[in-house]
Specification:
about 250 residues; alpha/beta; six-stranded mixed beta sheet; 9 helices; about 10% strand
Length: about 250
């Protein structure tokens, strides 16, 4: 079984590596450092919730050209509307980032302590076929680093690769196969950490991305504004939950 798994992983790495040689036409990510207020206009006197956004192009907003459509900003709006408080969101995510990049480049760049950190990463570890051993080490160190900042972490699962219509069939299959391994590593790293919540975004909204092409941007690889909105819908309950547990009620930080 071990030999067969190793051979399958090697085959997946070879096929998925083809993704690295492709040019993906898409809009550049937008700089995110904005305060979002509740749609009702209430909450002007309440304390501001600080949200830090980490990860790859999905968190950076590649695929949309309006700041309001970026995943982290849409998520901040949902939190603001639910809590009646303004949310200040700072984006540290960068297109092309892998787990190691979050650890070594994004976490050290934090300039103000968030009340909650939100993370979307792993797709580029699939594309670059990061080895399971290396990914295990860096994923655990990354979560340690994010927790050290002082805020609970909400981490998204990998995306629904079947929705990435720009991928040829064999490459899509390889990405899904290797992505399963990456997902296992992420789940195992998150499981023993009570301050880390891993959200199964694919289970929540993945089929919508497969069935509705409008969930994806024109490059057929990154989500559209509507797609980012559905991911924000899936992440928002976990963000609200950790804020209630660790910040809004004065719980442990």
């Amino acid at each position: 079984m071990t030999v067969m798994t190793a051979l399958a992983a090697a085959l997946a790495r070879g096929q998925v590596a083809a993704l690295r040689r492709r040019d993906w036409p898409s809009t550049a990510p937008l700089a995110v450092d904005v305060t979002v207020t509740p749609s009702t206009g209430a909450g002007a006197g309440a304390g501001v919730v600080e949200l830090g956004a980490f990860g790859d192009s999905a968190m950076a907003g590649v695929g949309v050209d309006r700041l309001d459509d970026v995943l982290s900003v849409q998520l901040a709006q949902r939190v603001a509307d639910a809590t009646g408080r303004a949310v200040h969101v700072v984006g540290y995510a960068r297109s092309g980032a892998r787990t190691l990049d979050v650890l070594t480049r994004q976490v050290p760049a934090v300039r103000r302590t968030p009340d909650v950190s939100v993370l979307v990463v792993g797709t580029n570890d699939v594309i670059h076929a990061t080895s399971p051993l290396a990914l295990t080490r860096t994923c655990e160190a990354m979560l340690d680093g994010l927790e050290t900042i002082g805020a609970p972490v909400v981490m998204s699962s990998l995306p629904e690769f079947r929705a990435m219509r720009a991928l040829p069939g064999p490459v899509m299959s390889a990405a899904r196969g290797y992505g399963s391994m990456v997902g296992v590593v992420q789940r195992r790293a998150a499981a023993p950490r009570p301050r880390v919540r891993l959200v199964d975004v694919v289970g929540a909204v993945g089929e919508e991305f497969v069935e509705d092409p409008d969930m994806m941007s024109t490059d057929s690889f990154h989500p559209s504004a509507a797609g980012y909105g559905r991911i924000a819908d899936a992440l928002a309950p976990a963000v609200l939950s950790v804020l209630t547990s660790f910040e809004l009620t004065g719980g442990p930080r």
